[in-house]
Amino acid sequence: MSSPAEQQQERISIGLIEYLSRHTLDEDYEQIARNRPGRRSTWLATAAMMATLALFGVLVFTAASQTTRNASTAEHDRTTLIDQVNARRASVQERNDRIRALRKENDQLDTDLLAGGQSGSGVFERVRRLSVLTGAVTVKGQGVRVVVDDAPNATSDRNKVLDSDLQKLVNGLWEAGAEAISINGQRLTNLSAIRQAGLAINVDYRPLTAPYTVLAIGNPNTLPSRFAETTHGATWFDLQKQVGLRFDMKTDRSLVLPAADELSLRYATRAKEESR
Amino acid sequence: MIAAIGLVVGIILGLLLTPDVPTWLEPYLPIAVVAALDAVFGALRAFLDGIFNDKVFVISFVSNVVIAALIVFLGDKLGVGAQLSTGVVVVLGIRIFSNVAAIRRHIFHA
Q: Is residue A51 a contact partner of residue B5, using CB atoms and an 8 Å limit?
């Protein structure tokens, strides 16, 4: 074999990978074979070799079993998580159903109570009319359908629809005489909040995504023109022109707006009634 | 022959004991196995070349395993553990491939 100096030279001249693939065998084997040919191995060395090979066997087996075990643990964790998610989702669904059922029952009881009382029917009529305004019941009627969306190829927040834009649109519609409004199927009540949360706009704590379809029930003949006269309407036409937000208002002969999901007063509670 | 017995004994031992690898040792085990594979294939080739020496094998095996694990450990401490393991695996892989090629030439004369 070549001298160390020549080896060094070779390593430099042929590059690392080439050198590696040429010198794959430990050089000690050759060296010992050259220096001490025909030497018998001692039993101690043989025992050490056997021990080493046994160690190799243990090593390979352990690594393999460890990998399999880890894989099965990860898989198990994943399925457990999925199960938990599904269970929670089912329980949320169940509770929502229960809320809906209870509300229906409440409404029924209210109706019965009011209809049964002597002075009830007048109150009942008032409650019915009020619940149209407050968003407690599903309503239908003629009005306008407004579709707003981010500017095409929107990059920054400047040419996207923000919560404040939606607030202005809704306030403008109220001002123009709308009697009921919903955004993407979320009915707005007098306590509804329109807020940005991350990328989505939350309406009544439900995240909505663009495009936003705003349905407003009102006089279809006057609603668009009166909206255009409000400050918020003017702001929106500016936005449309300057930043390129999409704004589309069409009248519609029959709109159906769903009831609001949540009707809760945060502070006010009912004062005690004098018994009838 | 003796070597095969040693290997079988090792695998049976592993099967019976199923040693639990401590967590801190876990990342170094695969690298150690690859390094050990390299030493074993080198030994097999030397055996077929007729220049096998058990002492050299034991030393090369132990030093291979220890150095490979050490390099990865050092890489982990320096924050380049993944890259260094890749490097070690590439180098050992090249060695294993050419050793196996030499063994194949011995066995099939092709």
A: no
What ipTM, to 2 d.p.? 0.82
C-beta atoms surrounding A223 within 10 Å: 23
Nearest to B37 by CA among B2, B65, B4: B65
| CATH class given for the domain over A139-257 | alpha beta
> Using CA atoms, how far apart are residues A151 and A182, in angstroms rounded to an integer?
22
pLDDT digits (tens, 9 = 90+) for A248-261: 888 888 888 888 87
- Determine the Cα–Cα distance for residues A217 and A144; give it in Å rounded to an integer: 6
Look at strands A212-217 and A180-183 and give their pairing: antiparallel
User: What are the C-alpha distances in Å from A139 to residues A104, A217, B48, B63?
Assistant: 16, 9, 91, 82
Token pair for residue B69? 């694990």
CB < 8 Å from A in window 50-79 of B: 50-62, 65
Distance CA A272, CA A260 (A): 26
Of A207, A218, A161, residue with least CA distance to A185:
A207
Say which amino acid occupies A143. G
Question: What chain B residue is nearest to A35 in terms of C-alpha separation?
Answer: B51
Residue identified by tokens 């255009």 is A228
Domain segments of chain A: what residues? 4-57, 139-257
- Give the mutation candidate from B20, B31, B49, B55 for the A interface (greatest A CB count, under 10 A): B55
With an 8 Å Cβ cutoff, is A56 touching chain B?
A: yes
In the predicted structure, residue A87 carries a pLDDT above the cut 90: yes
Would you list the DSSP string of A160-176? S--HHHHHHHHHHHHHT
